[in-house]
Amino acid sequence: MCNKNTNIKDFKNLKFEEALNRLEDIVEKLENNSAELEEATKLFEIGMQLSDFCQKKLEESKRKIEIIKINENGNKTKEEFTELKDEV
User: What is residue 4's predicted lDDT score, i.e. its pLDDT?
Assistant: First the structure.
């Protein structure tokens, strides 16, 4: 669970999955109204920081993804990932 004194600096070595789990814990606690006002306010603040952290991690990963395509000649080419395309 999150420490009440946690701040964004504490997230630099956090893995995405850990941050997401912490965020889910906070959301659950806030939805269950199991925190007093002061604690709920701090949890909300930490939750917003975790949400921003997760969003930034997703954006970083999105920029790093390369799609490898095999053209008609069987040659592989790399193309920067720009957006997900629905394939039907």
Answer: 46
